[in-house]
Amino acid sequence: MRYVDEFRDPELIMKASEEIGRLSNPARHYRIMEVCGGHTHAIYRFGLKDILPENIELIHGPGCPVCVLPMGRIDDGLLIAKEPNMIFAAFGDMMRVPGASGSPLEHKARGADVRIVYSPADALELARKNPDKEVMFFAIGFETTAPSTALTLMSAMKQGIRNFSVFCNHVTIVPAIRAILDSPDMRLDGFIGPGHVSTVIGCRPYEWIAKAEGKPVVTSGFEPLDLLQSIIMLLKQLESGEAKVENQYKRVVPWEGNRAALKVMAEVFELRPYFEWRGLGFISQSALRIREKYATWDAERRYTVPETRVTDPKAAQCGEVLKGVLKPAQCKLFGKECTPEHPIGALMVSSEGSCAAYYNYEYRKSLVTSINAVA
Ligand code: SF4
After folding, report:
1. Tens digit of pLDDT for each residue in 127-162?
2. CA of 263 to the centre of ligand 1 (A)
3. CA-CA distance, 112 to 26, in Å (whole number)?
4. Which residues contact 355 (CB under 8 A, 6 or more apart)?
5. Does residue 321's CB lie within 6 angstroms of at least one atom of ligand 1?
């Protein structure tokens, strides 16, 4: 299959791994952050960590939009779900994410009308088919998914569908990277740049990281060879003392981004002055809100939103894991109180969460190995 099989070729993977071994300086310890949760999953799923030299440490970044959403936003959204005749629509990824008052699925069990949709357009269709109901779409995601929310709002306006609204939780990736770089407890050598977000924003927004911070960035695809090639590109820069932005994922990511997608986002959204991120606190201009022109479809204007502030359970170390300060298994609750079956934090349930990735691909493997050893 084109664009999959050739990027999983075992022979090429071993050659890339050997080249990484040749390029890396054994006297140096490299700390490379993969910003995107999709990369974290690929790294664990394909066992890439096992074929890298020990002095190359991959640090998981904050690129999982479900994980970085503070519990209070989930509670605020679920409060709206209690409005009369309300259908709460969200992606499946959100359904088991805990708020302080429970997850959307738990609210469904208590009687709320909670539905999984595969796109914001599906939520709009629900509203069109149920004119006697209100439908609120819980919008979440980086710039990757924001254009489809924007297009749906434009479509709601065009079709005059007024029993539809959006609770907007879209966030932007660059301010989060800036917050990580400003963090005093974080030392990084370079970044594997996000693949999905970059299909929309392109590579140019990362140039300051190379110019002002002196850290190389390589935007990467999600297959094993993509990631290994990105590490090779980063090592070449690091060893030659360079810092620039490179695009390994040229087959998908245009350097200048997707102008049409950026245009619809600019039509519908504006930057919030600040937004709270789990683990990173309040970051200025790091999230989107719906423009006045689309106020009719803005759930935050239509309903009472108390702006709930909830602190994570004391022992949960989601914030440190999101910042890359701790590895998932270093959280005190990992694999004990917090598992995919009984998640305490969103990182354990989201398809892009680093705790879920580590649990499903590394931890389960080690459990099987120890059970086999005992048997
Ligand atoms: S193991 Fe659970 S509580 Fe700990 S960081 Fe991961 S999601 Fe959060």
Report:
1. 999 999 999 999 999 999 999 999 999 999 999 999
2. 37
3. 57
4. 318, 321, 328, 331, 334, 338, 345, 347, 348
5. yes
